[in-house]
Amino acid sequence: MERRFFVDSTTTEKYLRIACISIGCYDYILTLPAEWRFYRSQSSIFHLSLACVLFILIRYVSIVAIVASNYGFFSTTFTQQACQKYYLVAPIFKAVQTMISQVILGVRTFNIARRDRRIGIALLLLFLFSISAEWFADLFHGTPAVFDGNCTSVNSAKVLSTWFYYLPVMLYDIAMVTISTIHLLHYNPLSSRVERLVRVLIYDGIGYFLVLSGNYVLLVTSTLSTFLQCQMY
Question: pTM of the entire structure?
């Protein structure tokens, strides 16, 4: 009965991964024209705006993180020795990707707060605390796990540190969305166009938080499945 449960959970994780890869590929192809127009709008290839640099980083670091994670998961040729050299690649790129997304959210919040210096300092301290906790949790008690030739990183301890990785991520997102929403609600639009923009920014922030929170739940569930398999073996 337990064996069947683990097989079913692994199959579900495979389907979810394939679905996410398919959606990611579709979105990448769909947004290529907009990406090209964004590059064309820059004054020079050597004078890229901050928004453009962050866009490039989050777009292509995310691709590398997805490829690294799924290569290890779907591979059938890993040995324990080979996995020992590879198992931290996906977690490291995941942490870098999270850092970049948090920088983007922090810059957005700082600009919405009209670049208030005190808020900027608070955001920076919150960012430093968050990434410190994330890196510690991401690499804490990580151990290579090989199942049928694949390679993943699981927790060797009794405590599943994945929960502690996503906790500071979610707290950071909550803080950013709360600060930006409060400032947006205090804006006094001078025209209907500005009012629509404020409304879009509010919905955008809340929508971002809800989608990312759902994604974190799926990732934690996926990691929990691998963790339980490791404990069973």
Answer: 0.79
